[in-house]
Amino acid sequence: MASVDLSHHLSAEARLRKPTAMKEIWRLASRKPNMVSLANGDPPNILYPIKRVSFEIASPSGDDPVASWKTESANTPTQVIGATRDGPSVLPVKKAMQYTNGAGHVETQKAVSELAHAYHHPPNHVITLTLGNGDAVTKCFRLFGNPGDHFLADEFTFSALVQAAIPQGIKWVPVRMDDRGMIPERLEEILTSWDAARGPRPHVLYTIPCGQNPTGSTLSVERRGKIYELAQRFDLIIIEDDPYYFLQFPSSDATAAPKSTPSFVSLDVDGRVVRVDSFSKVIAPGMRLGWITSSTQFHEQLVALTDSSSQHPHAFGQIFLSELLGPEGWQLPGFDKWVRGLGMEYKRRCEFFLDLFAKEVATTGFAEAIPPEAGMFVWTRIYVEKHPRYRKEVAGVEGARGPRTNCKKLMEELFDTCLDEGLVVMPASIFKVDSDPHYTDPEDNIEDRLNYFRLTFCGTEETMRTGLSTLGRGLRVFFAN
Ligand SMILES: Cc1ncc(COP(=O)(O)O)c(C=O)c1O
């Protein structure tokens, strides 16, 4: 199946970037098995002071390996994976430690590619290893963004990355969300009513489809289908940032088949989806490894960018992944068992959190939790309109184009009250995507909808207990003033 030619989406920077000449020569060295090279400036591998790398890891045996791992005892099964200098191993140390291709060592790419294909069956896509989703998404912004371009995003999003694009000259256009994530009809409205005076219509959509950060929402299959159709109709690139994909909660119905929401990339017949995955939430954030699934055309561009910047992912992580997914490691069935265990564990934690929330916070009558289906976060709505000093003015509290309510100010006060009580939360304001005030509907200003906190159930039970009882107390204090 051929992908559509989408090269017109490439930024001026990407078009100007030439493949790194030295890396091109270096690639020639792998043309034949016994090519003699007097070309590369690699330190002789005999001088690498590393003979063996080994990792003792959890063994994915038993029904719920994550549950037995977290209650670690002398009997908790472990296994050792690793590599020696000369092998035999999937990726021997002397090879792993050399300079390599921007997409990573072929052995690791192959292992990760098999994993990506097992979950997403992408129609016509290839894998590029990355240093995690932060690295991957910001590289994608550089691939597609010219100064003055407009990009679309969930109206509340992982702001660290959105902010990274602003110095590049990208302007963000927030898409309205509800409790189930981005609303396709609102995306359509933006695209159909685009005012050409603003500049070219947005051509990139950045979205977090599962356990969204910060709202915890997961896009339904139906919404994904509609958004993909809009991407085809309006010629959008979709950057699918999905670090919480493997933290989807299993169905409560034990007889139901394991849930697997089709990703955007699995729908992508055109090559317009660039999917971004991370090992940060599956193995550990310090792994600093992830991968992009994209069309070959965008893969080549990403490799050129990496070749001339970070060069390639680090060898220790590539050894780890190659062995983890290789014949001596978990392989795909073991990996699948582990991530299903993670899904169950996060679901258990979430249920514990929501039970406590019902007792400690909902009983105040001032807040509700929106239950997620994946990820780490509970979007918590504060009934700010019940506050005695809440104000709503038809003319707007900051003029006709500004917000109509004092929601933002009251939420700042509530945040301070929580701090005074000894609790830190993430306020909605830090995740909002600012829109051009000239094109903001005064009846629907995001500043009037900042009455949310992002809370996490990643902490210990004790943290959740103390945190939620403090929140309940903070709400009572705040609403009494
Ligand atoms: C939506 C989203 N994207 C990207 C990242 C960064 O992930 P990584 O550790 O893979 O760089 C995070 C981390 O919290 C995230 O929530």
From TrEMBL:
- Where in this chain does the record put each Aminotransferase class I/classII large domain? 75-469
> Which Gene Ontology molecular function entries are recorded, alphabetically?
transaminase activity
Q: Which cofactor does it need?
A: pyridoxal 5'-phosphate
Keywords, alphabetical? Aminotransferase, Pyridoxal phosphate, Transferase
- Gene3D superfamilies for the chain: Type I PLP-dependent aspartate aminotransferase-like (Major domain)
Matching entries from Pfam families are given as:
Aminotran_1_2 (PF00155)
Report the superkingdom from the record: Eukaryota
Q: Which InterPro entries match?
A: Aminotransferase_I/II_large, Class-I_PLP-dep_aminotransf, PyrdxlP-dep_Trfase, PyrdxlP-dep_Trfase_major
Which SUPFAM superfamilies does UniProt cross-reference here? PLP-dependent transferases
Instruction: Fetch the PANTHER family from UniProt.
Output: AMINOTRANSFERASE (PTHR42790), AROMATIC_AMINOADIPATE AMINOTRANSFERASE 1 (PTHR42790:SF21)
The family annotation for this protein states: Belongs to the class-I pyridoxal-phosphate-dependent aminotransferase family.
The protein's name is L-tyrosine:2-oxoglutarate aminotransferase
